[in-house]
Amino acid sequence: MSLADARAICPDLATRPADLAREAAALASLRRWASRYAPMVGTDGVDGLMADISGVPHLFGGEELLRDDLHARLERAGLHAASSIAGTRGAAHALARHGGGIVADGRLVEGIGHLPVAALRVDHATAEALARVGLARIADLAQLPRAPLARRFGAGLVLRLDQALGAQSEPVAAEPDAPHFGVRMTLPEPIGKQEDVMAGLVRLLNRLCAKLAATHRGARRVRLELRRVDRGTAQIEIGLARPMRDPARIAALFTKGVDEIDSGFGIDALRLSAPVTEALAPEQIGGGPAIRHEDALADLMSSLGNRIGFDRVLRFLPATSLIPERSFILAPAAYSTPEPISYRAGSKRPITVFPPEPVTTTSGTPPASFRWRRMRFTTLRATGPERITPEWWFDDPAWRTGLRDYWRIETQEGPRLWLFVTPQSQGWNGPPDSSWPAPASAQNWYVQGEFA
Amino acid sequence: MKILHDNSAPADPFDLRRHRVHEAEGRGRRAFALFQAARHAGPLVWIVPAHSPELPMLRGLPRGVGERLYLCRPTGETDLLWCVEEALRSSPVALVIAEPSSQLSLTAGRRLQLAAEAGRTTGLMLTRKEAGSNATETRWSCESAASPAADSTLQHWGLIKNKKGTTGSWVLNWNGATAAFDLVSEAGERCEPAATAR
């Protein structure tokens, strides 16, 4: 039925576009749940599940009871489903999509004979052609000789018919589960001591790291959930500066977190999972000093990052900008790799840089004397100017005062300062991030850095 | 008690004694720290408080320092001292530079010394005037000085406390790009009285 027809019948029909990705995800989780009924469960098209229940029904008390159990559980979860049980995959597929039910053993032709030929998983053109010659039901096809049927409608129809009636085998192919990096441990008696929790953690870590090693992956975040006897949970999560699967080194990072948790009346279950993993190829362990050196540095970054935050452990990366504030990037060390720094010839740069601070009581260009940070400076030597124009493709509020002339001022008092003047904005426009009250003249000199 | 370092005086007056924590104060302390950074091979950790507006500028650093420099910006003094101790305990780090924002207590200073001995690393605290700890191995007073010639950058570095040696005062010319320096002998300023008491 088209949407226009449906709207004509029911004007206040609520509609929303299909989200195929989420439907597939929901079907995948339903498939995982359905493995309670059979070891081999595969998806069947975009809207079905196919389970091979050979040898299973007696555990539920028979096929009818198994199907009732399935429907009751799905009903309780709010899902309406149709299901069928048949001796072959093709027959089960056909019956589930045309009413559902159970086909008794050995009575396949009677069970699905009344269904239309379209139920045989044949394409629309074949089904039309069959209907034109008067073969509307599966039972009509089952009696016919195979050779003329194959010659007229192709081998595909005969294959599907044979699969449905059991002459051709068709196994249920269950796709492999995505690796799940989670392990748990339930304890017979609650524990509360720190070393007991750490001992349990080490056991879980050994299992988790073995799982990670089997799939050639390393954890970037590891989460430990502790369930207390009063049903409360405590959670400790750590980050790692680089993918890792070494139990001893990960356990060391948990020490502080385990120290801080409140065990209450005791902890009776532990669950350890790695929510974020990255590919980590097998590598030489315990190798030369260079590898140990790198490992120790990564451990330092992990422990610093877990305490003060990974965005506060930084590394310098070069950037191609002449603007002083943007001539380098401070990137989190755990999520970046070092880059070589090219040393370009050019005028000297200060060793420290800070947001521009206005200087007061200046005189002349460059100023012969000025006050900055409540100190009086007299210029001994001035080098410059070096003109830096703003990058017009960025709207940087600090650079709205136009281009800047930078001077290296050596003062009589010792400090060598990096001053700039904004010739395009004479007078006081307000410094970028300060609200100093100041007179309207000679106020456009700022200090931005200090040389060695 | 085991002695973890030799007592022989370093050959170069500006060699920081290994596996100890040192202090530098004065306006030129960052230049002194970068000078020391250029002389230490290996990863460098620079710890500044998050509220500090002054940052090292990559293009102004001495050659080879920028690539191996890690910057930590912890919030709060406790976190800063914890970071220093943790970095000092980590053996691959060559030099730990930190800028504590308050007075270093004797306990904190002693803890840092123990951490440096355990990790076999060297530390350099950039403190404000008279905000250092008495547990420091050496304390340097660093000022930049006005230079008579246009192409020289004079530094006035004084060793004002030394647990295992004598103090001293030097005026030198350091160009800020490499670890090389020139001692300027004709500074003309005496730290000791000209004539000794008879």
Mean pLDDT of chain B: 86
With strands numbered from the N-terminus, the spatial order across the biggest sheet of chain A is 11-16-15-14-13-12
Tell me the strand percentage band of chain A.
25-35%
Overall geometric form of chain B: globular
Helix-residue proportion of chain B: 10-25%
What is the chain-wise order of helices and strands of chain B? EHEEEHEHEEEEE
- End-to-end separation of chain A in angstroms reads 79 Å
Discrete helix count of chain A: 12
Largest β sheet strand count, sense and barrel closure of chain B? 9 strands, mixed
- Quickly give the structural class of chain B: alpha/beta
Shape of chain A: elongated
* Chains forming the largest contact: A-B, 48 and 49 residues
Question: Over the alpha carbons, how many angstroms does the gyration radius of chain A reach?
Answer: 37 Å
In N-to-C order, the SSE pattern of chain A is HHEEHEHEHHHHHEHEEHEHEEEEEEEE
